[in-house]
Design a protein that fits this description.
InterPro entries: APOBEC/CMP_deaminase_Zn-bd (IPR016192), CMP_dCMP_dom (IPR002125), Cytidine_deaminase-like (IPR016193), dCMP_deaminase (IPR016473), dCMP_deaminase-rel (IPR015517), Deoxycytidylate_deaminase_dom (IPR035105)
Cofactor: Zn(2+)
Strand order of the largest sheet: 2-1-5-6-7
Number of strands: 7
Pfam family, one: dCMP_cyt_deam_1
Protein name: Cytidine/deoxycytidylate deaminase family protein
Largest sheet: 5 strands, mixed
Mean pLDDT: 90
Order of helices and strands: HEEHEEHHEHEHE
GO cellular component, one term: cytoplasm
Structural class: alpha/beta
Low-confidence stretches: none
Length: about 170
């Protein structure tokens, strides 16, 4: 009698699925982000975006949105781009760095549901991490983050064709 063998997920899908499951812990009404630290095929840490421990989060106290302007050069043209962000929330990548050890990060990979913003990319570039794998793009910072990763010699890639687990889908904010 032949036994049926279920197909196994590849490692990228496996770890990105975990990052999406971790993101379900976030209480951010704007976006749930999850990140995992992997050394080889060993999971060393998980984190999600949210307010500091013991502080009211955005679902309880409202978002603390600030507007920032950035001068962006496109070819010969310069333009001001407005970016809005919540300053109550600690990003998933920042929490991951706060709650993992440098020795574990050396040569490791971070799987994150969303492309890191400029600040998180800078922190990851200085953390010992050698690769960042993300799913959803963050177009506002994409070009400068890509340049940083190239300068640092870090692998930086979007997981194309990936479909997050159904139970991790976030309801749109009202």
């Amino acid at each position: 009698m032949a036994q049926h063998q279920a197909s196994r997920k590849d490692w990228d899908t496996y770890f990105m699925d975990i990052a999406y499951m971790v993101s379900t812990r976030s209480r951010c009404p704007r976006r749930h982000v999850g990140a995992v630290l992997v050394q080889g095929k060993k999971l060393l840490g998980t984190a999600y975006n949210g307010a500091p421990m013991g502080v009211s989060d955005c679902s309880e106290a409202g978002c603390m949105i600030v507007g920032e302007y950035e001068l962006v050069r496109e070819g010969e043209q310069e333009k001001m781009v407005k970016k809005e962000r919540c300053i109550r929330t600690i990003h998933a990548e920042q929490n991951l760095l706060l709650f993992t050890d440098r020795v574990d990060r050396e040569g490791s990979t971070v799987y994150v549901t969303d492309q890191p913003c400029w600040t998180c990319a800078n922190m990851l570039a200085n953390s010992g991490v050698q690769e960042i794998v993300y799913h959803r793009p963050y177009l506002k910072d994409h070009d400068k983050v890509l340049q940083l990763m190239e300068k640092k010699g870090m692998r930086f890639r979007q997981l194309g064709g990936y479909q997050p687990p159904e139970q991790t889908r976030m309801e749109p904010a009202p």
